[in-house]
């Protein structure tokens, strides 16, 4: 970590993210002032949330809402509950949302929220109080056409339900569109639960078609069995791949002939370590104790879907996959990406691969603003169509610029839209 001279201490993740934008601005032939316009967030809110713990004592939790850029529309991005989250990492995640929303063609700017907490250590009552407290604390800066949070690591549909309820109580009337990824019974859409993983699977299929003609039978390994990882595993198998390995913090579940991923849909309450143990206990998977073994397995596609900075200079040498699809945000460092590029390994970047979550959030928001409801099939069809179109747009751009990485093509495409809109609005 080092000081930037600004309001926060920078981190490797933020430095890497800004480096990628700078590179994109240069490759796209865009002016340096444009980089400056994007290198700092428009607004940062820092909050302290008191929670009366079950032992009767008040504990304070620090939280943030970073609003990066709203030139394309209301701010949009998830909220992370994680014990090690920093303000600088939240800034990096907000920057990625600006790019992701632009690339997906959504009418949204980018934002991200976070609370430094380990949600697994809270009781259900404490978690509810924290979630409601966070919603109250950020309420002055959000709104259904202002800034629309959603889940990220450590948060889920139940937490969104508490937050939308709290915000609605403050307003005195129901405001369904202020948070997305809510439960289906509270203005949500059933697709959102698995939307990000479904989108990752669709993009993996499209990439496999370009690379091998089809996804059928290709061997896939996935890091992380949370919301994104487990639904990626389920859908990529439904689309024809053979998921041979999944991992979480307690190790890797490996099965050469392919895991039975129906276990995921049959055990919706299970995720992370408990789901991994179920693959071992019920599906006869081998349990490899070292979680990092996932990176060096002999597979066709590797999908990191847990956290950032996991494929780095020190472990990239072990990667044997021909394609890496980034389910997580920022899982590959620029150093590691350079090595993969030189070896001809294709990296499908996060802002393209994992956009299914926010695209689905957008569909839910459109439903909410009109008090309208689409059914599951119709919604999934729309999501699949947007993801496929986005993939093809980036792929075609990348094909024209063979010296670029696919990330370069995605970032330049996203930046061009933002730049054009900034110009039109007279911001630069
Ligand atoms: N939830 C969403 O809709 C979206 C999430 N993302 C990104 O996807 C990634 C995962 O997010 P979620 O699935 O929502 O989080 P989650 O909290 O539901 O799941 C994360 C999982 O990763 C596991 N994990 C953490 N460190 C690990 C490690 N070193 N090795 C193996 N497993 C590890 C955790 O135990 C947990 O099971 C994050 O980078 C997030 O920002 C991106 C787009 C949308
Ligand atoms: O659905 C959303 O608005 C949040 C998505 C998100 O946080 C992400 O794509 O990283």
From TrEMBL:
The record marks 152 as: Important for catalysis. It holds the Pfam family ELFV_dehydrog_N. GO terms for molecular function: adenyl nucleotide binding; anion binding; glutamate dehydrogenase (NAD+) activity. The active site is at 112 (proton donor). SUPFAM superfamilies: Aminoacid dehydrogenase-like, N-terminal domain, NAD(P)-binding Rossmann-fold domains. Residues 188-426 form the Glutamate/phenylalanine/leucine/valine/L-tryptophan dehydrogenase C-terminal domain. Substrate binds at residues 76, 100, 361. InterPro entries: Aminoacid_DH-like_N_sf, Glu/Leu/Phe/Val/Trp_DH, Glu/Leu/Phe/Val/Trp_DH_C, Glu/Leu/Phe/Val/Trp_DH_dimer, Glu_DH, NAD(P)-bd_dom_sf, NAD_bind_Glu_DH. PANTHER family: GLUTAMATE DEHYDROGENASE, GLUTAMATE DEHYDROGENASE 1, MITOCHONDRIAL. Belongs to the Glu/Leu/Phe/Val dehydrogenases family. Homohexamer. This is Glutamate dehydrogenase. It comes from Pyrobaculum ferrireducens. The lineage of its organism: Archaea, Thermoproteota, Thermoprotei, Thermoproteales, Thermoproteaceae.
